[in-house]
């Protein structure tokens, strides 16, 4: 998600961007980590869990997913630029504030609908999914200081920028987020690796041994 709030100032023609206006000389740049509300869902069965996207979980070969945790790693950004119009329709742009956030207000945690609440199977799967929640949360918090520092560096190095028109101004949040892409990719790679280290055949076998009724009558199973 990107958001842009414009602050426009008229300015005479210049061959290049002038000194920044007072409101843009010391921009505020921050990155916040959203602590999502956990929403435990019990409305998707074993057959449907494998079709859920936006997760770093993957069952080992020969096994099926018993629960799924959605990732909460999305970057959103609000930018408040100052636009100084120049002759010919171009403009110089600075920013007064960049407010970025990682995460989502809510995080869905699925336990297969095949397991009634209060059963051994439900409790064991929920416990396992809570480990995925903590992995994802820990990785985001560990990377947030680096991403925030890089965002401050990018803002300091990127402005002023000369744009041809208002359409280019609207691309500023996307431009800043693209500059953060290598760090975001690194964060997600670590998240994928740590989730994979939990979803091993050995851990799945230990989970299976804790309960007995993994496939109640009428259970639909996905392809393994």
Description:
The chain has 224 residues and is an alpha/beta fold. The chain has helices spanning 46-49, 120-158, 166-169, 172-179, 181-198, 201-209; strands spanning 2-4, 7-10, 28-33, 37-41, 67-69, 75-85, 91-102, 106-111, 161-163. It has one domain. It has 6 helices and 9 strands. Strands 1, 2, 3, 6, 7 and 9 form a 6-stranded mixed β-sheet that branches. The protein has a 3-stranded mixed β-sheet with strand order 4-8-5, with helices on one face. This is DUF922 domain-containing protein.
Helix/strand layout:
Blueprint: E1 2-4, E2 7-10, E3 28-33, E4 37-41, H1 46-49, E5 67-69, E6 75-85, E7 91-102, E8 106-111, H2 120-158, E9 161-163, H3 166-169, H4 172-179, H5 181-198, H6 201-209
Parallel strand pairs: 1-6, 2-6, 3-7, 4-8
Antiparallel strand pairs: 5-8, 6-7, 7-9
Helix pairs in contact: 2-5
Organism: Telmatospirillum siberiense
Protein name: DUF922 domain-containing protein
Give me a quick take on this structure.
The protein has 224 residues and is α/β, with parallel strands linked by helices. The protein has helices at 46-49, 120-158, 166-169, 172-179, 181-198, 201-209, and strands at 2-4, 7-10, 28-33, 37-41, 67-69, 75-85, 91-102, 106-111, 161-163.
- Gross geometry: elongated
Low-confidence stretches: 4-15
Overall strand count: 9
Strand content: 15-25%
Q: Can you summarize the main beta sheet?
A: 6 strands, mixed
Distance between the termini: 35 Å
Mean pLDDT: 89
Percent range for helical residues? Answer: 25-40%
Q: Figure out the total of helices.
A: 6
Tally of individual domains: 1
Structural class: alpha/beta
Note the run of SSEs as H and E. Answer: EEEEHEEEEHEHHHH
Radius of gyration, in Å, reads: 24 Å
